[in-house]
């Protein structure tokens, strides 16, 4: 009850003053932040759960956004408009990370909420590539989710702890604007992009794609700014970031697990969607329930059967 009362007071103060409110409630949680490194990356996916090429396997991660550390850090958008390009984007991302880790062995990849970890695991399984690399990133603690750190360490005057709700605390005058400002806008915009491209309206399609890219870039910048803001709160609280800890052995599927190896072999490569029905049965992926699709158009232009 005390926590709810304190939360309510912050919300009232923020509504009344118009000034973002926060308080650090458990500074020791901030010790889990890794020490900053010049090689750090800030990562965000854009995905469409209703995209399908065949009505069987659903969802496309159409943009891997990667931002380097530093105010002048380079932003790298890796686009994917079909399964083959999605596979290539995954391998390009993992190659980029591997190369960067060679130069910066203490680097980390920051994201907000668990979607990025889940999507990487799903993509590695779907395409039959990079499973060991993704597993190693998870085990070694390279991927750092800021969401649980915020939930456990900070109380805010906003009504949620979404990235967008937190941004008034640390983005200053650089708040979001434009037509694409939410994940839902991104998905809707991407669906519209596919329609424009199919209709041959390439200039309009390119404009919309740039808006989605700008939105993703902002998400990555916001994640970077949030990490920096949390580090400052740790410093103010007298807490020294000691870094996330690697996952202990036994925390995931062992590389030599016989069942995992047999399933991977049975699933095959999967590049270009050339798995047999038997291989598809043991590979990750599946069909969303009819309640989600609602008979809407899929992204390849067909109809989604809900019967």
TrEMBL record:
Pfam families: RNase_H_2. InterPro entries: RecB_nuclease_TM0106_put, RNaseH-like_sf, YprB_RNase_H-like_dom. Residues 41-230 form the YprB ribonuclease H-like domain. It comes from the Bacteria. Residues 263-307 are annotated as: Disordered. This is YprB ribonuclease H-like domain-containing protein. It comes from Mycobacterium talmoniae.
């Amino acid at each position: 009850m005390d926590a709810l009362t304190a939360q309510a007071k912050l919300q009232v103060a923020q509504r009344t003053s118009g000034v973002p409110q926060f308080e650090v409630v458990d500074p020791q949680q901030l010790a889990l932040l890794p020490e900053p490194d010049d090689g750090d990356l800030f990562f965000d996916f854009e995905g469409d759960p209703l995209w399908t090429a065949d009505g069987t396997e659903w969802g496309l991660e159409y943009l891997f956004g990667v931002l380097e550390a530093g105010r002048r850090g380079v932003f790298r958008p890796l686009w994917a408009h079909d399964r083959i390009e999605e596979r290539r984007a995954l391998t390009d991302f993992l190659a980029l990370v591997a190369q960067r880790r060679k130069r910066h062995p203490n680097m980390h990849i920051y994201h907000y909420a668990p979607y990025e970890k889940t999507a990487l695991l799903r993509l590695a399984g779907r395409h039959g590539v990079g499973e060991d690399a993704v597993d190693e990133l998870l085990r070694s603690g390279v991927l750092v989710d800021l969401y649980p750190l915020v939930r456990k360490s900070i109380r805010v005057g906003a009504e949620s702890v979404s990235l967008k709700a937190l941004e008034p605390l640390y983005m200053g005058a650089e708040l979001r604007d434009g037509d694409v400002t939410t994940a839902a806008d991104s998905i809707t915009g991407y669906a519209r992009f596919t329609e424009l491209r199919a209709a041959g309206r390439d200039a309009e399609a390119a404009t919309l794609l740039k808006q989605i890219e700008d939105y993703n870039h902002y998400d990555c910048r916001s994640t970077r700014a949030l990490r920096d803001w949390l580090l400052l709160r740790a410093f103010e609280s007298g807490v020294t970031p000691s870094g996330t800890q690697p996952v202990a052995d036994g925390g995931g599927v062992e590389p030599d697990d016989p069942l995992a190896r047999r399933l991977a072999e049975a699933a095959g490569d999967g590049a270009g969607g050339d798995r047999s029905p038997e291989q598809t049965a043991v590979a990750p992926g599946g069909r969303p329930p009819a309640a989600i699709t609602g008979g809407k158009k899929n992204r390849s232009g067909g109809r989604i059967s809900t019967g």
